[in-house]
Amino acid sequence: MQKLTLIKSRAVPLPAENIDTDQIIPARFLKSIDRKGFGENLFRDWRFNIHTGEPNPDFVLNHAEYSGEILVAGNNFGCGSSREHAAWSLTDYGFKVIISSYFADIFKGNALNNGLLPVKVSEEFLKDILTNITENPGLEIAVDVEGQTISFNGKTETFELDSYKKICLINGYDDIDFLISKKQVIKQFELKTQKYEQQLF
Amino acid sequence: MDNNKKTLFDKVWDAHVVETIPDGPQIIYIDKHLIHEVTSPQAFAELEARNLEVFRPNQIVATADHNVPTINQELPIRDELSRNQVEQLTENCKKNNIELFGLGHQYQGIVHIIAPELGITQPGMSIVCGDSHTSTHGAFGAIAFGIGTSQVAQVFASQCLLLNKPKSMRITVNGKLNENVQSKDVILYIISKIGTDGGTGYFCEYAGSVFEEMSMEGRMTVCNMSIEMGARGGMIAPDTTTFDYVKGKIFAPQGEEWENKLAYWKTLKTDEGAVFDKELEFDASDIFPMITYGTNPGMGISVRESIPVPQNESETKALQYMGLKAGQGVSDVKVNHVFIGSCTNGRIEDFRTAAQYIKGKNKSDNVNALIVPGSQQVVKQIYEEGLDKIFNDAGFQIRQPGCSACLAMNDDKIPEGEYCVSTSNRNFEGRQGQGARTILASPLTAAKAAIEGRISAFENLN
Predict the structure, then answer these.
(1) How many angstroms separate the CA atoms of B203 and A7, rounded?
(2) The overall pTM is greater than 0.80
(3) Which of A58, A132, B101, B413 could staple B107 via S-S, CB 3.0–4.6 A?
């Protein structure tokens, strides 16, 4: 996993609420057995006209003035399906941080497992960011993983981040490395609880 | 607060804690891991890239469901990408000694239908799957939840996950349900009251007489949709209904093992006086047959109500997408498609209910009506009970098992702009096909809509 420490970037505003993972990456693009290439279909049916395939001029990712590694989205981002393809499509497109006032649980976990940082801010702060980047698309937002702060225009808010996950992000570690290191403890647990003997087949 | 008092969730969770990382997550042991073709290939690839083996293949069960056709399953899959994905699953299972109930197997079906009906799902277990509707298995008093593909790889590698314990929540519904109200209506009602993020961060226990009196199929429908209110999972304390359902199933414990497990399962209920982080209560008599009118499962009303005025931009956009207006009754909607199936309502009880209503009637000429059984076992029951004749006579198509039009990864898509009354779980934009308009409902309401070609309340007819 790529390390994530300090992100300073312009941001893309997407104020819609309850953006579900079916919007982030529609199911018909989940047929790949690979992790790569999902970025081109990120927000596919909002981003492109469903009949002509032409870019939809109303959608923010098609606005030349907006770019950057940060996506700022409305409340309850990532609800719905557990498809990790949603996180892969966002990272593949180039996003490193998603800002919202609320994240759905499974999406949040998937994002963190892919070095994509979900930053939960207050509703006021979210509204403030959205207003400011809409007025000034060149505005830079700074996200400090170590200090757990998000800042723009001299305003700062802190965000929550599990201390274990923070270590993972900063160092580029992932959960598999950690769990493999615990194999002995896991085997002892199985013996103690007779788990492994309760086989199905 | 008395610390000795535990909730059902605490009891099952605590029994699976391998280790607690100071100031960090817990290592949680996973009893059963269910996998399917769409969210597992990248996890197998991850393992291979790290030169790791599947740690406990005997605790994994695989099936092909999300991306399979529901016609001619005996023939090679026509769509190349889909065929490749299903073949990859077969290859991965073979290579790693994982039991696969693939296409053509007598136990194949939607992952959340087959595990319970085969007795793989049991009370007190921890169960995961790369699918958010894994919450279904909570109906047995198991901790069951959906995971992402990175976590699928973690469970492959270690049979464990690193998790922070979710907060606990209890939703109690007491009283007597009104006529024609099904378990689907109960959960759609709850979600309409608390919204799609009302349960985020929580694991939810459903309690009260309404759930106690429900069949296992009904409880599964309720727990299935826990994720639609944002909850990590839902669960219901196991009782005689649960034990009777599990007993005798193919992979259920037998003899002495059954007795031992049963004794343990009977302890799996919330202690009196245990404290939840959040408690909600609803009255059964307030619940009527429900439908959704928007683009998330929280946008639901009773069939008798008219569509409410949008409260924000997202709701306005949803009504626009649905081609509906505030103040309008849903009976105005001309229904083009009816889909009865999915992990929410693809069990035998759902088809019995639909068949009972449909018997002797014909579907509306304007409606394309699809019956998609949740598994091969359900198919068998449908034919054994003669329900196939009822559906065929009424002009419904009976398909082969799979997720089908619930997420429309295969050819079972609803065309743009058309309305589908669906017993599935999500009415998101484009969920059933680009531009498709989904109206979620119970199997009974869906059956009625298929006959009438529109959605109407029951009291006018019965």
Answers:
(1) 33
(2) yes
(3) B101
Q: Are A59 and A2 in contact (CB under 8 A)?
A: no
Pull the structure tokens for residue A177: 């490395």
Strand, coil or helix: B375: strand
Q: Contact, B121 vs B140, CB < 8 A?
A: yes
Distances (CA, A) of B168 to A79, B278, B457: 19, 7, 36
Closest CA of chain A from B298, distance in Å: 10
For residue B406, what is the nearest residue in chain A, using CA coordinates? A27
Quote ipTM for the complex: 0.94
Q: For position B459, what pLDDT does the model report?
A: 63
Cβ contact B134:B169 at 8 Å = no
pLDDT in tens, B352-411: 999 999 999 999 999 999 999 999 999 999 999 999 999 999 999 999 999 999 999 999
Continuous segment of H or E residues that includes residue B215: none
**Joined tokens for residue A127:** 């509204």
Q: If residue A127 lies in a helix (H) or strand (E), which one and from where to where?
A: helix A123-135
- Residue B401, burial from CB neighbour count under 10 angstroms (0-12, 13-18, 19+): buried
pLDDT in the model for residue B408: 95
CA distance B371 to B374: 10
Q: Where are the beta strands (DSSP E) in B252-396?
A: 278-283, 290-292, 300-302, 337-340, 368-371
- Nearest chain B residue to A108 by CA: give it: B148
**Rounded CA separation B203/B169 (Å):** 6
A82 closest CB neighbour out of B81, B132, B200: B132
Strand pairing class (B437-440; B419-422): parallel
In a 10 Å sphere around its CB, with 0-12 CB exposed, 13-18 middle and 19+ buried, how is residue B49 labelled?
Answer: exposed
